[in-house]
Structure formats: structure tokens, C-alpha cells
Amino acid sequence: GLVVLADRPYQLGDRVRIGDAYGEVDHIGLRSTKLTTPDDTRVTIPNSNILTDRIFNANSGVPDCQVVTDLVLPNDTDAAEAEAVGYEAALTSPYTYLAKPVVVLVSQRMGRLPYLEVRIKAYVFDHRYEARMMSDVTARAHSEFRARGWIRL
Fold first, then answer.
1. What number of other Cβ atoms are within 10 A of residue 78's Cβ?
2. Can you give the pLDDT at residue 45?
3. How far separated are the first and last CA of the chain, in Å rounded?
4. What is the pLDDT of residues 38-94, one digit of tens each?
5. How far apart are CA 110 and CA 66, in angstroms?
6. Helices (H) and strands (E) in the chain, counts
């Protein structure tokens, strides 16, 4: 517990991943750290795990954090157009923190069949809206994908 308090790998309100747990730090004690996951589950992590597990901190004490939204399209989709749609979807989301960059990466992947992956990386103004932003960006992009005939329902 003293190592956690002295080293300060995270603080109250940070979004962290410790082992398999991901959520907002809402308690730091001498024996354990408590997180609340995005689906409102409370996870208690013994501080002894902090010494051996890797800790990923998404926002390091500031309210904004990066949100990555991955979308999949048919392999024959025009990559430049898909990138433009992803960029527009992120820029028009009310959750996007526009003071930070929006980056869209398009790559070909292979699963059972080849497909095009669109990875949209943008910052949410408050990490508590991470899931809402991901949902909003997905809905905006999918709406345009359907309008262009790239996907069907």
C-alpha cells in the first residue's frame, strides 16, 4: 500500500487497466485499490498485485482520454473514402475533445475472409463518456456506411 501511495502510478478518478480489470479508480487504500468498471461492477485489487502487474493509465489525472473505435468493412471498400467517413464521424461527435487530434487508420486484415479495418482514434472530453463516445462514433459511421451501400442490415 505504501508503494502505491509513494509511486502514484494512478490517482483517484483515473481510468486504469490492472491485470484483467479496467475501470475508474475510486478508492486507494493501504491493502487494496478499488475500481468501478464501465458496466458498474466494483473490482477490488490487492495492492500486492500492483507490484507485479502492468498498469495502464488512460488519462493520468486529466479528464480527457483517447478512445479507439474499430469498425469493419468489406475488403473492396475504398480505403480513402472509409478514412474520410471515420474522420467525419469522430469530428461530429458531441463527445469529441477537439483540442486534441483525431487520427483514422485504415488497414487490410485477414479473418475467415479479408476485410478492411477502420481504426478511429479520438479524445473524449471526459473519460466517463468513453463508452458513449465509442457508441456515437460507431452509429455515425455506420449510418454513412449504409447510405453509401457499403454495409446492409
1. 14
2. 93
3. 51
4. 889 999 999 888 778 888 998 888 899 999 999 999 999 999 999 999 999 999 999
5. 26
6. 4, 8
CA nearest to 83, candidates 135, 48, 118, 129: 118
**Whose grid coordinates read 475533445?**
97
Total residues belonging to the chain: 153
pLDDT in tens, 119-150: 999 999 999 999 999 999 999 999 999 999 99
Task: List the beta bridge partners of residue 106.
Answer: 118
Cα(139)–Cα(135) distance, integer angstroms: 6
CA-closest candidate to residue 17, choices 37, 2, 32, 3: 37
CA distance 24 to 15: 4
Question: Distance between CA atoms of 150 and 52, rounded to whole angstroms?
Answer: 46
Residue 47 near residue 30 (C-beta atoms within 8 A): yes
